[in-house]
Amino acid sequence: MNVITASNSHSxxxxxxxxxxxxxxxxxxxxxxLALFDPLQSAREIRARVIGVHRESDQAVTLTLxxxxxxxxxxxGQHVLLGVDIQGVRHxxxxxxxxxxxxxxxxSVKRQGEGGVSDHLVSHCQEGDLLTLAEPAGDFVxxxxxxxxxxMVTAGSGIxxxxxxxxxxxxxxxxxxxxxxxxxxxxxxxMLSDSLAxxxxxxxxxxxxxxxxxxxxxxxxxxxxxxxxxxxxxxDAATHTVFTxxxxxxxxxxxxxHREYGRAPLFHERFxxxxxxxxxxxxxxxxxxxxxxxAAAGVSLLEAAEQAGLSPKHGCRMGICHTCKCRVSKGRxxxxxxxESRELNGQEVRICVHAAEGDVELDL
Amino acid sequence: xxxxxxxxxPIVFERPGVTLTRSQVEAFGREIDALxxxxxxxxxxxxxxxxxxxxxxxKGMELAGRGLLFLGVLxxxxxxxxxxxxxxxxxxxxxxxxxxxxAQWDWLGDPALDSSTYDWDNTxxxxxxxxxxxxxxxxxxxxxxxxxxxxxxxxxxSDEQRWNPAYLFQPAYNWVLASFFQxxxxxxxxxxERLLKGEKSFAEYREQRRKIMKKVRQQVGKDYVLFPxxxxxxxxxxLAGNATANVTRNLWSYLIIFCxxxxxxxxxxxxxxxxxxxxxxxxxxxLLGSSNLEGGPLFHIMSGNLSHQIEHHLFPDMxxxxxxQVAPKVREIxxxxxxxxxxxxxSRQFGTVLKRINRLALPxxxxxxxxxx
Lengths: 364, 373
Description:
With about 375 residues, chain A is an alpha/beta fold. Chain A is about 20% helix and about 30% strand. In chain B, helix 1 packs across helix 10 and helix 9 packs across helix 14.
């Protein structure tokens, strides 16, 4: 792929040129100026141009991306934090990469109906749009050499990382057998259907589609996953190494079955984290120093940290100088000035005017 | 506005012709708060487009300016190149850098325009600027002894500052400060006088000086060594162009900033006056300690919208492109409470600044409320 070639040729560029460029553009980066001519250029973030938009249905879309040279590639099964500007504001959400490593990365997105990043991409994303990517992450990957017998159990959006794993497996000299059972409510919700049809042509794959919400078409099954389904429907299911991904309840069933019967390892990927209970006040965890503190309603994160014996950087204590800005790794906070409460995931807030709502993890 | 003497609602603000009770000051504060909420809730794509276009314009002008200076042996190219570079440096420092570092654009979530990571084309390191400016100056605006922007440690800008004979020369060295403003700003963060008084440790001072010197080397290396070297035989023209652009930016930013707080009616405050200050009283001090400049749209942009100094001080983290929209409403509220809204053209406002500098070069005739060294 040309993206990869480009990135290789750049990385051997002499460090001297790079240093001269940096010295001439200080305190900025040469890329800040090059971005005038090519908006993909950036020294601080992976930017990617959308070069392909495949609308699977009005519910789902697969985007093919051309990232800039900061993109180092991903391992099959990993996910990436994707950023998109909506009404001028950067919104971020995690998506599994659905492509096998090596080519232009793709992500497949299903509408969530909450007006967030997914819905925006499904409805509005067009060729030529710019997105940002973080470093790919996640350990839902094949550890070392692939086992002979693999069982993939997926539902809904859970199809995306497993699609990446299976594609990369088939592109290698894999000589074993993959049984892949995918559960979907209706056909219109199914993502990557073209690619799935192509996979059926490979003798190493036994792909089964189970439709739970409407009448199955030729060859597909009806039914619903329960604790016996895998034993009843997959020969020697218990001896397979399992990769599973899907909604929380679905995962619980697969993992419950595996605990009972499984005789080979199981790898799973959970999309949604457990719901946070919003309340008045909460517990503040300090990620760096390791301590924690109970904060009553209306007590700012800064005060909570100070009561716990920390002395975070701060200034005005009234929300104007932004000296105290600190990253909240996760948790819900309430803006003490506007009263607004919101869920954070790695964003920075002014800790002098925000309070904890439930468990909050602060980068202090 | 007149208020009856009320034990439960005491008068907390008095100026000739105006008295405000505590509840009136708080009502004033709530009106200013409401104004802020209204604008902040309305931010969106238009604003994002504005700042991104500003960055592109500035970077484009800088590239064009530096390019033309390589042909600087031709006088028109030198003039155009120097002018473009000067304007681009002014835009970067004032409309982009100063405002980005105030966190005006943090809501975009764009790491290129984020206050925690942005550094500007100036010898003063961003980290120190954010402390001395965003915190010290904006929290303690015009409080003599607290806000070090009151005279930058070398000028007497208020009767409250004790006079000494060195100030006799301030009408002259004022112009030296103006020409080397970025250096003044960079080194005033060192707070040498606090070091001498023992309020600041030598280790802290040394660490700050190390950071400043690193930034200075990078800035000087770029404008006075690398770009001239790159121009080969045309080095003198590039060097002269870069130096002129830096001095032009210094003079212009000095002019705008001095007009922001040192005009005739801009008030100074003592530390005692801000004890237990409420948010309403803080707003009041920002209004009375700041002064606006009037002019066209281009003038406002070139001043980094610090021509709306009052609005900037009331709402330091509001995107600067919104100040002109909020200014008439602030003025209306101020006038309704009988408060002076200090606004005028650049020539008039700067005239009063020079008058202040000249007057305070001499010992004050009236006894200051609260003399501070």
